[in-house]
Amino acid sequence: MLLVLLLWILSPLPYMLYYRFTYGKNVEIEYFPIIGRMASTKLAFKKFNDNCYFKKHARDLKPNLDINISNDLIYGHMFMVYSPELAKQFAQNLHNYKTMVFDFMEIFSIEGKIQNKFFSGIFFKDGHEWLKQRQFLGKTFNFNLVQNSKGIVERICQTEINGLEKLHDYTQVWASIAGQAIQEIFLGERNLDLKDKPFCLEIRRLIQKFLSIERLVKPKALIRRRFFNKRYPSWLIYDEEKQDEKDMLKCLDYLNDVITKKKQQKNFGTDTLTLYIQEQLKDPEIKDTEIVHQFLSLIFAGMDTTSTLTQNLCYVLGKYQDIQERVRLALINDNDQDYVTGFINETLRFYNPIAGLFVKEAVKSHYLGPYWIPKGKSINVQFYANHFDKKYFPDPQRFWPERWYTDGGRDFSQASYAFTPFWAGKRNCIGQHLAQMEIRVILKSVLQNYQINLKKEVGFTQIFLYGMAETLDVLKFTKLNK
To answer: Which one of 9, 62, 221, 350 is least enclosed by Cβ atoms within 10 Å?
Structure first.
């Protein structure tokens, strides 16, 4: 029995060693018994207070590193692409891959049957289905949407940032701003409450629970993933998970009621839901379920990413007071915008909430550059190795907003995929321009009313998103005398 267990523990290693000996120093293997690369992130945080530390310093010792191969508790063998050239090839040949969606990204029935009731929007689609949804959403996520939505975000900020000086944790504030903005832009509704709190915050609570690492590594979850496929006995589902499903189904019912009421109105607005309803008249194949999935996907993709980035930006402003003052004057006086852009980009380089893409699965065996990727293997693109590569960013450990627009800054023509905070290619972030507008509006609203100070420096960690490891009593917002 012990021999069988030992062989199972060591089983990922020969495969990884084959790649190391075949391709040499351009491939790095990262093996940890049982828990896989999760051990690497835990070690990085324990030693350096940053669980992305090893990724950020990957090229310090291995300047020609192209791919990292690790054993992953969730995805099996994981090919992590570091090279910008390989990342570009990856983006240009997406027909070789499909998005991996495991049970933690779905809602299962109480009887244990997996049902994709939640994560079925554009971010989890591939091929023709993705293209169709992208083309439709592309009609709404355009320059006019960004311009017309600016007033919505400004109005929400006026209400939400009041009283920042009295709070000890601000994450809920940034999430509420981002969530209410998406809610109003998509649904055309301002005040939607469920369980005596904003509807978007209830959705956020459930998303965080479904995607939490704590849920993934619970014994029953590991047994489900290892030994069962799309159906398993009800005793393998925790009571808490059953309650979460019931709460999510209430949210879905609530959304369907909003859609029904919108259809009954005679005067439509310019929101995304209205465009969907009008499109339904032309294309009966568009069901209300698709609309619900798109809204949930946009909340999933845009709410916590924007709020985490806002928190990271505020952390940097609190740490560098001279940068804070210059950004404040630029936003209030509407000048020096190159510096504001440089500050946001530099924060994304250091503290991008998204450290990589959604994991993909190879649908056929193929070559990525010179590297053989077998069918069924997991593959992803890692951002931080390039963000801290001195080949692309001289003096990479220096926080320097000017690098983005001075002669000493980075030459983007050398490697367009070295900096991809919103990814690149045809599957880049559809809401990136909306997110950038939201960030500027939030920063302006905060900085024209508050001085930000850092109470203490904290570590950074990636659970689902990459952000401050602790948020309680880290920042101090002091009301400005106008």
So the answer is: 9
475, containing H or E segment: strand 475-479
State the angle between helix axes of 239-264 and 199-210 in degrees (0 to 180), rounded to the nearest 10.
Answer: 140
For the chain, give percent helix, strand, coil, nearest 5. Answer: 55, 15, 30
| CB half-sphere exposure, 214, CA atoms < 13 A | 5
Are the CB atoms for 257 and 120 separated by under 8 Å?
A: no
* Cα–Cα distance measured from residue 52 to residue 75, given in angstroms and rounded to the nearest whole number: 19
Question: Token pair 């993909």 is at which residue?
Answer: 360
C-alpha–C-alpha distance, residues 454 and 475, integer Å: 5
Q: What is the DSSP annotation of 240-275?
A: HHHHHHHHHHHHHHHHHHHHHHHHH-SS--SSHHHH
Residue type present at position 337: Q
Q: Which residue has the tokens 């808490």?
A: 240
pLDDT digits (tens, 9 = 90+) for 276-335: 888 888 888 888 888 888 888 888 888 889 999 999 999 999 999 999 999 999 999 999
Q: Which long-range contacts (CB under 8 A, 24 or more apart) does 99-102 make?
A: 99/123, 99/124, 99/125, 99/126, 99/358, 99/359, 99/360, 99/361, 100/75, 100/358, 100/359, 100/360, 100/361, 100/378, 102/74, 102/225
Alpha carbons within 13 angstroms on the beta-carbon side of residue 241 total 25
Instruction: Give the position of tokens 């063998």.
Output: 77
Interval 411-470: pLDDT, tens:
554 457 899 888 888 888 888 888 999 999 999 999 999 999 999 999 999 877 889 988
Residues near 302 by Cβ (< 8 Å), separated by ≥ 6?
Answer: 178, 182, 431, 434, 435
Name the token pair of 47.
Answer: 């030693």
